[in-house]
């Protein structure tokens, strides 16, 4: 029935037995009439394809297979029914509105494809609009202001064109439905029964793609997203360390400088994916030997990040606050709150707290929320060298400046620093190389180095080169941290370094997960003795069976392990536990 209906849609008037002038029998048509008929048929077919794309096309490139299009959209059936029951004027208005709705759906699907390619998730209709400003800033850095504005205007024009074309397509198809109303009604009834049957049975031709599909199911998620504000507020109200006095916080780290280094895009795939693990693993194994020779020891595990492919600030907020911050609304509500962050705990306990943020290029009021006494951004780091990556100094300069400004200062307080290692941030090219620390100076020594490396324009034309550039940048960032410890490390330094999230799917492939390695390095053995109950593995590289915690669990467990008393912590499952409970040892099945 459905096939017959489609065939009749695509027939020319002559094929339906309509007579043509000069040919009373209707068996032959003149050339112009045939061309018009063929053109009309092509336009109708394109209209059908456009509507079907909006209704049934997957929103991930990896799922765009022929089998994924063998689906029945509920909205298509309801649309045919609506057209059949409405009178002429109302029908045209309804078709136009449906067209705009389907056009918006098509636009969201295209945006979803981009989000999956970069962040490994779909676009959130409530939370992700503020990311437009970040995208514009990234475009400006990458292709210049004119290129960024041009790209934005082109995207807006294309979106408007999609809305117009979809509305015209629905108007055209509605006329055909009315012209063949009996066949259309029968086809809608058959497809309706088929949709209901497949929905009840959960029928799938391609795994993950049900035959019975509701195209506007994303709209149902809006309600959940809108309710998330209350859910987050309830979670934030629980804080075991809110009122803990400073003299009881972090007592086991007194006299230590503590550096918390986020290695951008350093995800689990970096140490387990065969494309990267041999080289990255070799860096970590060699670093482990070098640091042991220098008297350091280390413990490693995995943390499950709330984000993937990007959104580093969500991971930072999650780890530092002990709350699960997986969208922009949660982040904005967090930084407006009085939540005690890990940085703030160090500050309350008497440490000087600093943020060394080479990627910050403008005012950053969030710094006060996180509890920094001083923020070193791109402009006050004293860097006079060339631009690397997306305009930032190399990691070696960042650590050198931190050492010079903070740790080398005489008669200073102990410092706790958060330092993002941004060389491993996309686009991962050009990658600097390590030099002697005594030669770093103001960074001008790096002049000429970017020109000798791979350039983003060339790298991003080939996924294999993207992956190679990613691996090289991770190796550089890790080698820089290891070299810093060898050069400036002592008994009074504790380094915590971790990945903020997995790299984009173009690097890892789809379904890579959200785990990122974390490592604590110290030369004072008593520091690592405090976390002996965590069950973390020896060395800089966590193995496949290393514990896995949610990133939001780290703050409470860290404050408990290094405080003067073992306060309660909230487990990832929401249960109250102590740092010595079996769950604290972590396991992939227990916390994910």
Automatic annotation (TrEMBL):
<feature type="region of interest" description="Disordered">
    <location>
        <begin position="563"/>
        <end position="592"/>
    </location>
</feature>
<feature type="transmembrane region" description="Helical">
    <location>
        <begin position="183"/>
        <end position="206"/>
    </location>
</feature>
<feature type="transmembrane region" description="Helical">
    <location>
        <begin position="93"/>
        <end position="119"/>
    </location>
</feature>
<dbReference type="InterPro" id="IPR017850">
    <property type="entry name" value="Alkaline_phosphatase_core_sf"/>
</dbReference>
<feature type="transmembrane region" description="Helical">
    <location>
        <begin position="68"/>
        <end position="86"/>
    </location>
</feature>
<keyword id="KW-1133">Transmembrane helix</keyword>
<keyword id="KW-0812">Transmembrane</keyword>
<feature type="transmembrane region" description="Helical">
    <location>
        <begin position="38"/>
        <end position="56"/>
    </location>
</feature>
<keyword id="KW-0472">Membrane</keyword>
<feature type="transmembrane region" description="Helical">
    <location>
        <begin position="146"/>
        <end position="171"/>
    </location>
</feature>
<protein>
    <submittedName>
        <fullName>Sulfatase</fullName>
    </submittedName>
</protein>
């Amino acid at each position: 029935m459905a096939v017959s209906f489609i065939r009749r849609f695509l027939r020319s008037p002559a094929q339906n037995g309509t007579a043509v002038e000069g040919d009373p029998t209707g068996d032959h048509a003149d050339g112009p009439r045939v061309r018009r008929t063929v053109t009309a048929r092509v336009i109708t077919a394109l209209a059908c394809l456009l509507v079907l794309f909006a209704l049934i096309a997957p929103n991930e490139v990896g799922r765009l297979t022929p089998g994924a299009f063998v689906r029945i959209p509920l909205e298509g059936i309801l649309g045919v029914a609506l057209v059949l029951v409405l009178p002429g004027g109302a029908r045209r208005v309804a078709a136009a509105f449906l067209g705009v709705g389907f056009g918006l759906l098509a636009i969201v699907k295209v945006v979803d494809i981009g989000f999956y390619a970069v962040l490994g998730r779909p676009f959130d209709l409530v939370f992700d609009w503020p990311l437009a400003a970040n995208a514009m800033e990234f475009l400006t850095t990458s292709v210049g202001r004119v290129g960024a504005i041009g790209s934005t205007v082109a995207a807006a024009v294309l979106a408007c064109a999609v809305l117009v074309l979809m509305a015209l397509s629905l108007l055209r198809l509605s006329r055909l439905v009315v012209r063949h109303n009996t066949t259309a009604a029968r086809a809608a009834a058959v497809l309706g029964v088929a949709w209901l049957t497949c929905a009840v049975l959960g029928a799938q031709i391609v795994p993950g793609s049900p035959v019975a599909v509701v195209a506007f199911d994303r709209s149902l998620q809006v309600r959940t997203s809108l309710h998330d504000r209350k859910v987050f507020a309830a979670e934030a109200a629980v804080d075991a360390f809110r009122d803990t006095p400073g003299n009881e916080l972090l007592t086991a780290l007194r006299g230590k400088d503590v550096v918390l280094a986020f290695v951008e895009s350093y995800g689990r795939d970096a140490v387990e994916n065969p494309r990267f693990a041999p080289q990255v693993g070799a860096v970590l194994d060699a670093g482990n030997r070098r640091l042991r020779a220098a008297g350091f020891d280390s413990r490693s595990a995995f943390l499950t990040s709330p984000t993937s492919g990007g959104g580093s600030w969500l991971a930072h907020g999650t780890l530092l606050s002990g709350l699960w911050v997986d969208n922009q609304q949660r982040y904005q509500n967090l930084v407006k709150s009085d939540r005690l962050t890990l940085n703030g705990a160090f500050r309350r306990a008497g440490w000087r707290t600093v943020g060394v943020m080479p990627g910050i290029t403008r005012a950053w009021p969030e710094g006060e929320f996180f509890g920094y006494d001083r923020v070193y951004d791109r402009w006050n780091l004293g860097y006079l060298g060339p631009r690397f990556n997306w305009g930032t100094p190399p990691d070696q300069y960042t650590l050198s400046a931190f050492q010079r400004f903070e740790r080398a200062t005489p008669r200073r307080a102990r410092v706790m620093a958060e330092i993002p290692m941004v060389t491993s941030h996309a686009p991962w090219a050009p990658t600097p190389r390590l030099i002697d620390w005594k030669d770093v100076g103001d960074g001008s020594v790096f002049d000429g180095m970017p020109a000798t490396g791979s350039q983003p324009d060339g790298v991003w034309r080939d996924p294999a080169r993207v992956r190679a550039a990613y691996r090289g940048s991770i190796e550089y960032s890790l080698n820089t941290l290891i070299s810093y410890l060898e050069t400036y490390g002592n008994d009074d330094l504790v380094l915590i370094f971790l990945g903020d999230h997995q790299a984009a799917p173009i690097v890892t492939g789809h379904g890579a997960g959200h785990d990122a390695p974390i490592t604590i390095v110290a030369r004072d053995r008593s520091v690592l003795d405090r976390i002996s109950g965590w069950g973390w593995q020896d060395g800089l590289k966590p193995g496949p069976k290393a514990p896995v915690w949610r990133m939001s669990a780290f703050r409470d467990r860290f404050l408990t392990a290094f405080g003067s008393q073992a306060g309660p912590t909230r487990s990832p499952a929401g249960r109250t536990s102590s740092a010595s409970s079996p769950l604290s040892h972590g396991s992939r099945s227990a916390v994910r």
